[in-house]
Amino acid sequence: MNEQLTKDYAKKLDQQNDLKTYRDEFYIQPDSIYFDGNSLGLLSKRAESTLMQLFDSWKQYGIDGWTNGEHPWFYLSEKLGAANAPLVGAQPEEVVVTGSTTVNLHQLVSTFYQPEGTKTKILADELNFPSDIYALKSQLQLHGYDPAEHLVQVESQDGRTLQEEDIIEAMTDDIALIVLPSVLYRSGQLLDMQRLTAAAHQRGIVIGFDLCHSVGSIPHALSDWDVDFAFWCTYKHLNGGPGSVGGLYVNRKHFGTAPGLAGWFSSNKDKQFDMEHILTPAADSGAYQMGTPHVLSLAPLLGSLSIFNEVGIEAVRAQSLKLTNYFMMLIDAELGDYSFVVANPRDAATRGGHIYLEHAEAARICKALKANHVIPDFRTPNGIRLAPVALYNTFEEVWEVVQILKTIMEEEQYKKFENKRDVVA
Ligand SMILES: *Cc1c(COP(=O)(O)O)cnc(C)c1O
User: Fold this and answer.
1) CB under 6 Å to ligand 1: residues?
2) Domains plus CATH for the chain?
């Protein structure tokens, strides 16, 4: 037998993993394999501890927690912005942790979508997550434009990925703003943000990226690439917890652009409590906040981001690539008889942090995986998303998952279930 296909080989790879000690920092349920860290990352002990710390500051200080204690709440969004900045390749003042993905997208489009003359359209793609598309359509409607005409969605040639040439070709004179994902949520394709940004700027178009599926998984250099703006959630690879507060980046060249959606937390912090009716916005990305921060949903990020900053995102990415590479090797070797299609790009330069398997029986294969204590997620119509996460999953778990999939197919275990998605997939 090929040595690379053995469980011992998986164990050997785990022993050689420089990041192996981090697994112990997370709450891993015994007898289950969690491959859904790209939908909701697991709780770390550090995140739990900083959440308890901020509970305690409420207990101890009451209202004075805004300015007292180790992590004064009034400055928490900026402090976490600085901690998040290295993960997106930005300067500390360019990032603030606020809002949610969808809220931040609304804020950034409200701020940077400035239709003028015949330059009125927004360019997106047909594969993006629905929330982004709903937000863009509603923004167009608020401006009195018909989304059917003013939202241009680049088409996919294969239903899975986007061609950068097609995106660039769609950057026509009538486009005022571009919003694209960094990593596609289904196929996991990683777009070349640097190339797309350069092409947009050559044509005088403002461009922003949704980093939900790349932040905490892949290094970025937003400032060097000169990206105009970006936004992301922190509950996927960043392990901030359900509903944790999102992130937002604004390139410093845009500092001073008035927030499209203002609120008192958009203020320069020294002015905020002057309570004037004329807003003096913060001089940096802080200006794009609106209201009172969700302190208890920020708190876990203090602990969680400290892990990423200790490890470094380059090391996270290197380990993630090894895991997904190994995963694909085993899928090719073991599952060839069962009509799975590896639908994510295989190349390291264009692949994100998860594996995407397509299969006609995907919905019920996912149910069979769950019955076998493997947590994947199903993406309609026929996708199984599996994320071996660098900080807490192992090569051995990858090996186990492939064996379990093989048994499910061999024994046709999936036939016990209905091929239909659950309410939350
Ligand atoms: C997860 C995700 C979202 C979720 O948006 P929320 O506002 O956090 O609910 C939006 N867009 C993409 C691309 C995502 O992956």
Assistant:
1) 100-102, 129, 131-132, 181, 185, 210, 212-213, 233
2) 3-31+313-416 (3.90.1150.10), 49-311 (3.40.640.10)
